[in-house]
Structures are given as C-alpha cells and as structure tokens.
Model the fold of this input.
Amino acid sequence: MSDRTYDDPPANGRLLPWTGEEGKPCYVLGDGTGYVSRLADQVESVQLGMAGELIDHAAELLTAHRLTDRELHYLARQLTASLREVKRVAESRGARPPSG
Done:
C-alpha cells in the first residue's frame, strides 16, 4: 500500500485553479497541452485579471470613501478570496518545470 495521501500531489501533476470535494486540491497529469490544462490556463488568467481589478477597486474605495464596517468586512473577504486564488496560481506555476 502507498504512503501517499489524497492531498499529496502526484508526480508531474499540475495543481489546478479549482478544488474538488471538500476543498481538496485537484491535479491534472499530462504535457500541459490538453483540454483541462488549457481550461486551467484560462481560469488562471481570469483569476489574475480579476485580482488586479479588485486591487484597483479596493484602493479607490479606501482612499475616496468612508466605508461602513459591513463594507470593509465585505472588501476584506473579497481580497482574501482573491489572494487565496493568486497564491494557488503562484504555487501551481512554481511547481511546474520551465517550458521551452
């Protein structure tokens, strides 16, 4: 029996930008050219773009408006969720071998 747990990344597996059941990490195996890899690239691109937009929006809100506690809490939750996605993208990209 293997010592590998469900959370252990498979050898040469790419961490995907979404999770599976119970928030468990998802991986894809392959050379990075398949459908799932291309879909993951698109999702990562959207996540990074939305993170940039959220940062800009947060900066505007924090400098131009007086936020209520509820608004500030909502903003903090959105920034936290976005940071979690960006961290996942960075971990995934850092674990991949250099292309080329």
Observations:
- The chain has one domain: 13-95.
- The beta strands are 13-19, 25-29.
